[in-house]
């Protein structure tokens, strides 16, 4: 009997410490609202995501569901040049429903985009401006394998920054709300952000994702920062929209030596400065 009592006491103490110090909160959303009768507690920003290179890749679960706001607001995104004739690529949700679309210049000026066309049943759009591009990026239709490293560049949260990530695999993204779309996408897990910051990657949508050779293998379309996930278009979209062949002629010299974990942020800075990657501003109608 005494042994049973000692065992029971030991078990109770063990359970107390497990519950007290476990990093699990099954009522997180309710807790953030605070106790009844008190002001809600502001939700803390998600921590910046950094995983060691040998970390296990998480299993990709099911389809990606994206609910788009029906009302269009002023917002920003990212675009990149794909030829020397003023053609850029971005995400459909960045420009869909906008009254006017602009590129944001380095010193805060705006250049109006002459044409913004969404491409079919997917989160993909083609922009055209009147001036020729001094530099443009090379597109690739090659699908990267699981665990392959890639580099995403643009203007997350409206500021210049870059992300290193590795491929998890393929899945399907379904968009509802302002428009409906269904398309295959590539799922990535974040490894590093430069400079480091927490929270959403919103604003990098439409930006390019590069392989280590400096070729663009997709565009950023969605993210789940709490899970460290980013989703990009399948590379076949470049061939299906007729952009693949035109991008082969010439390339920016910045990318001739490829991209690595050691230089991807300096490459991103140079591509933004050259105009090969630009910030997009959507002015609501």
Q: What is the CATH domain class?
A: Mainly Beta
Number of domains: 1
- CATH architectural type: Beta Barrel
If you average the pLDDT, what whole number results? 79
Separate helix tally: 5
Helix content: 10-25%
The largest beta-sheet arranges its strands as 5-4-14-2-3-7-6
Counting helices, strands and paired strands, the structural category is alpha+beta
Q: SSE order in H/E notation?
A: HHEEEHEEEEEEEEEEHHE
The unreliable regions are 9-60
Number of strands: 14
> What is the C-alpha radius of gyration, as a whole number of Å?
22 Å
Structural commentary:
The protein is α+β, with helices and mostly antiparallel strands and 285 residues long. The protein has one domain (46-285): Thrombin, subunit H. It has five helices and 14 strands. The chain has helices at residues 2-21, 28-32, 92-95, 236-240, 264-274; strands at 64-67, 75-81, 87-90, 98-104, 110-112, 115-118, 125-128, 149-154, 161-176, 181-194, 208-210, 216-224, 229-233, 277-284. The strands form two sheets. A seven-stranded antiparallel sheet has the order 5-4-14-2-3-7-6. A six-stranded antiparallel barrel has the order 8-9-10-13-12-11. Strand 4 and strand 5 (110-112) form a beta hairpin. The longest helix has 20 residues, at 2-21. It is globular. 38% of the residues are buried.
């Amino acid at each position: 009997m005494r042994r049973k009592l000692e065992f029971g006491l030991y078990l109770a103490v063990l359970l107390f410490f497990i519950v007290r110090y476990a990093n699990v909160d099954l009522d997180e959303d309710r807790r953030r609202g605070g106790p009844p009768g008190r002001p809600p507690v502001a939700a803390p920003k998600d921590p910046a995501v950094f995983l060691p290179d040998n970390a296990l890749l998480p299993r990709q679960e099911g389809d990606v569901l994206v609910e788009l706001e029906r009302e269009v607001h002023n917002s920003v995104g990212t675009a990149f040049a794909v030829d020397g004739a003023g053609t850029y690529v971005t995400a459909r949700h960045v420009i869909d429903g906008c009254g006017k679309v602009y590129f944001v210049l380095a010193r805060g000026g705006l250049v109006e985009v002459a044409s913004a066309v969404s491409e079919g049943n997917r989160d993909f759009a083609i922009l055209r401006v009147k001036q020729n591009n001094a530099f443009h990026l090379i597109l690739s239709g090659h699908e990267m394998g699981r665990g392959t490293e890639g580099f995403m560049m643009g203007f997350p949260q409206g500021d210049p920054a870059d992300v290193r990530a590795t491929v998890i695999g393929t899945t399907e993204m379904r968009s509802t709300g302002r428009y409906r779309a269904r398309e295959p996408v590539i799922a990535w897990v974040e490894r590093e952000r430069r400079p480091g910051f927490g929270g959403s990657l919103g604003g990098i949508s439409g930006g390019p994702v590069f392989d280590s050779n400096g070729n663009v293998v997709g565009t950023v379309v969605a993210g789940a920062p709490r899970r460290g996930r980013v989703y990009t278009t399948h590379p076949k979209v470049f061939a299906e929209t007729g952009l693949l062949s035109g991008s082969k002629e010439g390339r920016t010299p910045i990318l001739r030596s490829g991209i690595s974990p050691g230089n991807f942020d300096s490459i991103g800075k140079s591509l933004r400065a050259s105009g090969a990657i630009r910030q997009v501003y959507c002015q609501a109608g």
